[in-house]
Amino acid sequence: MKYETLHGVQIPKIGFGTWRIGGKRSIDPSIEEISFKALQSALDLGYTHFDTAEFYALGYAEELLGKAIKNSKISRESLFITSKVWPDHLHYDNVLKACEGSLNRLKMDYLDLYLIHWPNKLIKLEETFKALNQLVREGKIRHVGVSNFNLKDLKKSKDLCETPLFTNQVSYNLPDNKYVKKGVVDYCKENDILVTAYTPVKFRNLNINKTLKFIAEAHGATSFQIALAWLINQPRVITIPMSFNTQHQKENFDAAEIELTAEEIQTLNTLYKR
Q1: Is residue 228 situated within a structural domain?
Q2: Average pLDDT over the chain, rounded to whole?
Q3: CA distance 167 to 164
Q4: Does the structure show a pLDDT above 90 at 217?
Q5: Which tens digits make up the pLDDT trace of 5-53?
Q6: 56 is an active site residue
Q7: Residue-wise burial string across 168-190, b where 16 or more C-beta atoms lie within 10 A, e elsewhere
Q8: Which of 120, 196, 234, 241 is in the most buried spot, having the most CB atoms within 10 Å?
Q9: What is d(CA 60, CA 106) in angstroms, rounded to the nearest whole number?
Q10: CA angle 247, 224, 179 (to 5 degrees)
Q11: How many domains does the chain have?
């Protein structure tokens, strides 16, 4: 596995997202078993960064993740756990309460990283960061980040955060470069803020694109793996794919070992209209 080292912290280039674990916007009992098995297999494969949120299945994703980790007997210290506070909960007291709820569901004493899931224009960032900074001082969270933030809000967050702002988690993949065009990705790279790419392989024609297939065949890989390799080749970029399928989980994990050539990277950079 390749890693990014930031502010003394080593974090895997490829982690495991938990959107759809246990449900989507509500709990889905029909996928509880497959969700738990997916988490167990990810832990068995060696994933150590898990990204979740209080919003995912109304917190049930956090609960299942906590149970899977406890069942695995893997030490808490060897894992990097990220969760997020929902935009309705960004007032000072609500942030503290939301974090406590996430910790209770995960059965953990601290989060490695806590993100504002989406900005809320009705609640001042100053109030939210007052709570986040307090949580860091109390040891309940170790690092602070944001998600889906534009450049203006990202810059303001960096100034408000008492500790170095750790990440901006955004939608980023080969054809989706809106955060590149808006200057967010470059700003992150220039200011030692990680870009955490979600939905890294969720786009049309990935599996049939001839150029992707050609590069994949040259590496004995899949098109999905090449799309992931393109992301993590970039400095200060990590990603959090998710799959219920153990084989796909392994392929995603192994994508970290693919070394793309400079020519292949340039080809991928211009593959879609940018």
Answers
A1: no
A2: 96
A3: 9
A4: yes
A5: 999 999 999 999 999 999 999 999 999 999 999 999 999 999 999 999 9
A6: yes
A7: bbbebbbebeebeeeebbebbee
A8: 196
A9: 9
A10: 130
A11: 1
CATH value at residue 57: 3.20.20.100
DSSP 20: B
User: What is this structure's pTM?
Assistant: 0.97
Q: Per-residue pLDDT tens for 73-115?
A: 999 999 999 999 999 999 999 999 999 999 999 999 999 999 9
Burial class (CB in 10 A: 0-12, 13-18, 19+), 139: exposed
- Domain extent, residue 73, equals 12-200+237-244
Question: Considering 56, 60, 179, 198, which one is annotated as catalytic?
Answer: 56
Cβ contact 184:170 at 8 Å:
yes
Does 42 fall in a domain? yes
The Cα–Cα gap between 18 and 27 comes to 13
Please tell me the predicted confidence (pLDDT) of residue 128: 98
CA distances from 73 to 49, 69, 76, 164, 264 (A): 16, 7, 9, 32, 41
Token pair for 71? 């069942």
**pLDDT at residue 206 in the model:** 85
